[in-house]
Amino acid sequence: MGENWFQREFMVPRRLAFNVLFYGLHIGIFAYGWWSQATNLKLAGLNTLKFSVWASRGAGLVLALDGGLILLPMLRNILRIIRPKLTWLFPADENIWFHRQVAYSMAFWAMVHTTAHYVNFINVEITQIRKQTALQIHYTQPGGITGHFMLLIMLLMYTTAHAKIRKECFEAFWYTHHLAFFFMLGLYTHATGCFVRDSVEPDLISTFPFYSTEHCLGYLSWRFIIWPGIIYFGERVWREIRARRATRLSKVLIHPSGAMELRITKPSFKYTPGQWLFLQVPELSKFQWHPFTITSAPEDPYVSVHIRQVGDFTNALGERLGVGPSVVAQMTKAAVKGYEKDEKNGFTRGDFVEVDPAMTSITLPQVRIDGPYGAPAEDVFANEVAVLIGAGIGVTPFASILKHIWYRQKKGKLGSLRRVEFIWVCRDAPSFGWFQTLLAEVEAAQADPNFLRINIYLTQKINEDMLWNIAVNDAGADYDPLTLLRSRTMFGRPDWNSIYGRIKSAIESGQYVPGSSSQLKTRVGTYFCGPSVLAKAIKKATEVNTDANVEFSFAKEHF
Ligand SMILES: Cc1cc2nc3c(=O)[nH]c(=O)nc-3n(C[C@H](O)[C@H](O)[C@H](O)COP(=O)(O)OP(=O)(O)OC[C@H]3O[C@@H](n4cnc5c(N)ncnc54)[C@H](O)[C@@H]3O)c2cc1C
């Protein structure tokens, strides 16, 4: 029986450890905030409000902590640098997941803090421990103003961050999330009204921080939590400067599946395989940066990305390059029909069309790139066997990794790596056009046909026409009629358990990894990019098949 949501989120050992630490820390800080308010004799006046003031102060301190934590996983450049050294401590690739956990926690503690403060303010008005009404505290004092302002921003940010909105209208999420700048300003200045004080009136002064720390007895937490904000701001400025360095779109190739390959020259841009970048085309939008996986290898003289046309930005880019959705639809149709390898003209379905500014009226637009980000796939070389699995568009990071393996193979620098299984699960035949040329090149370059095995699965139901074409063209041909590769396409969904079972048996029988010693455990690393449902099934198969001789590991590329 599969594990349920609760077991998955809370009971898996890594998650359990995280939850105990994360929520333990939050409850501890809440208790400390509560206790330090309740026992502070200077604040005896406020303490007459009892539980509500203790709860509001405890929750306020937790919110300060979260306000500092929430930006840490978004320090992309710093994460990229420290990631390799700290993978043992925390999963740096789960940064967005962590960002979301902090956001959920903030939503909860904001409710506690606000409710407790509402009670506080009503009780201040009733008891008149200060000569103010609840409405005055709410709407005329800095704490009340910044608090309500932050709640409004949270409402906008949380609703537009919902997965459905991000999918339907990413821009709504993207632009609204920039309100975080004002939220942070609100957070850092929330205590300036001196609500927590031992004096009758707020003890405001004319020099920074504009309230006396002698009588205003807040936690002064802004002094600590402002640092992630400053560093994040610095990163954004640095990204802007870096993105402005000389960049030129040197070539555009249109693959038969309709994918646009942009080849960009930027000498200052250094990356490793498996990473991604942000792309901006100022002519289309001065504000939008879209993430794309790098498909070239560091050894290539250019940086390339493969772009599928799926929405406003990518369609506009297609139109700008003269290959909008209608042209792509025609190309795809032709690609589906072109099962045969055209020996006479040398044209195959895998061939691409180059947008050559010299031949057409199209000039290539100016582009800017920012990055690289994400996990480098260098640890592929630490395994004896690497299983690279891409589903649909999830194949993109493997283009770079496969090319890089190929370059290192040529230099004889493969590290521990003895074999590579590349598995590509594709829904429909036209998608093969994406990397056909690349795969054909890599396949043809193999001196040892066993080093790299390409396994392609087509999951789409095939119609009669297609079946007929395959039957006619497959008979006795050296290449697969669908992919035009030497490896044959398999139909239907892969059975992961049997794939891993076969790899394990072959390793154990000593036939699979040349020169491996039976005394040593063979490490088989799986690198996957694609939908989570598939990730779960593959991960399970790696776990089930791990034994004393073969250790399967699983890593999901984040996309
Ligand atoms: C790390 C990463 C790597 C990616 N690599 C590739 C790649 O190699 N090739 C490729 O074709 N696509 C890739 N994508 C997806 C690509 O970023 C979106 O297809 C593109 O931004 C769509 O923009 P749009 O305005 O044309 O479409 P929209 O209609 O605005 O969006 C279509 C889909 O793309 C998502 N999306 C839109 N804008 C962004 C954005 N700025 N950041 C993240 N997601 C967005 C939306 O959630 C939606 O599901 C990658 C995404 C990520 C996060």
Automatic annotation (TrEMBL):
InterPro entries in the record: Cyt_b245_heavy_chain, FAD-bd_8, FAD-bd_FR_type, Fe3_Rdtase_TM_dom, Fe_red_NAD-bd_6, FNR_nucleotide-bd, RBOH/FRE, Riboflavin_synthase-like_b-brl
Q: Which SUPFAM superfamilies match?
A: Ferredoxin reductase-like, C-terminal NADP-linked domain, Riboflavin synthase domain-like
Tell me the keywords, alphabetical order: Electron transport, Ion transport, Membrane, Oxidoreductase, Transmembrane, Transmembrane helix, Transport
Q: What is its main location?
A: membrane
Q: Which GO terms describe its molecular function?
A: superoxide-generating NAD(P)H oxidase activity
Give the PROSITE patterns listed for this entry: FAD_FR
Topology of this chain in the membrane:
Multi-pass membrane protein
Q: Which CDD domains match?
A: NOX_Duox_like_FAD_NADP
Q: Name one GO biological process term.
A: monoatomic ion transport
Q: Where in the cell is it found?
A: Membrane
Would you name any one GO CC term?
NADPH oxidase complex
Q: What is this protein called?
A: NADPH oxidase isoform 1
